[in-house]
Amino acid sequence: MMLIEESTLPDTALPMAPFRAHLRLGTGFGEDGLQDEVLRGFLRAALAAVEARTAKVLIARDFSLVLPDWQSPLAQPFPVAPVTAVGAVTLIDRLGVEDDLAPSHWRLQPDTHRPLLRPRGLLLPRVPTDGQVRIAFTAGMAGDWGALPADLAQAVLMLAAHYYEFRNDTALHDGCMPFGVTSLLERYRALRLYGARG
């Protein structure tokens, strides 16, 4: 499985003003933008860490999922949520010839934690031998920072501030995700049942 982020979050979508306020950085000194590159880096790292911990895409972006075969011909789970739209499902044979499947072959089953691509008939179409399938989709909880749930936005700011404060620390005990952040994220994590299928 290969998950590819097709559209990256632009710098303008990052919450620089809220982050500066969270850090209590002074303003009006003629050097307000001096640390912007560093702050953007910590915000991107915190966003990535929160998304990895929750398997949720916070701000909407486009992705491609490339698979050697379906996990099951009855349903293919997406590795991130929430998936808001599927743009295309493409079968690719071993020579690289692509065949876009009509939406009459598949449908999106939305879910907060585990969205699925399901067949409209009995089974998803067979993936060519030695080929692969590519699913183009859009995922995201919000269109912009202001529309994010308050607890997730706070978790990102807290984690980015933690990275900023401990930027020179290489010891695990101070560099790990703080308890306050993990407690904010806990309700967004998917429950894993070992031995369960689906």
Structural account:
This protein is α+β, with helices and mostly antiparallel strands. It is 27% helix and 21% strand. Strands 1-2-8-4-5 form a 5-stranded antiparallel beta sheet, with no helix packed on it. The model has no long low-confidence stretch (mean pLDDT 90).
Give descriptors for this structure.
5 helices, alpha+beta, 27% helix, 5-stranded antiparallel β-sheet, 198 residues, 3-stranded antiparallel β-sheet
Tell me the helix content: 25-40%
SS class: alpha+beta
- Average pLDDT rating: 90
| Biggest sheet statistics | 5 strands, antiparallel
What is the 3D shape? elongated
- As laid out across the biggest beta sheet, the strand order is 1-2-8-4-5
Radius of gyration equals 20 Å
* Euclidean distance between termini CA atoms: 17 Å
Strand elements, count = 8
- Uncertain regions: pLDDT < 50 for 5+ in a row? none
Strand content: 15-25%
Number of helices: 5
Give helix and strand order, one letter per element, not per position. Answer: EHHEEEEEEEHHH
Task: Report a brief summary of the structure.
The chain is built from five helices and eight strands.
Strand and helix map with partners:
Blueprint: E1 2-5, H1 16-23, H2 36-54, E2 61-67, E3 76-77, E4 83-92, E5 98-100, E6 106-109, E7 116-119, E8 132-139, H3 150-165, H4 172-175, H5 179-185
Antiparallel strand pairs: 1-2, 2-8, 3-7, 4-5, 4-8, 6-7
Helix pairs in contact: 1-3, 2-3, 3-5
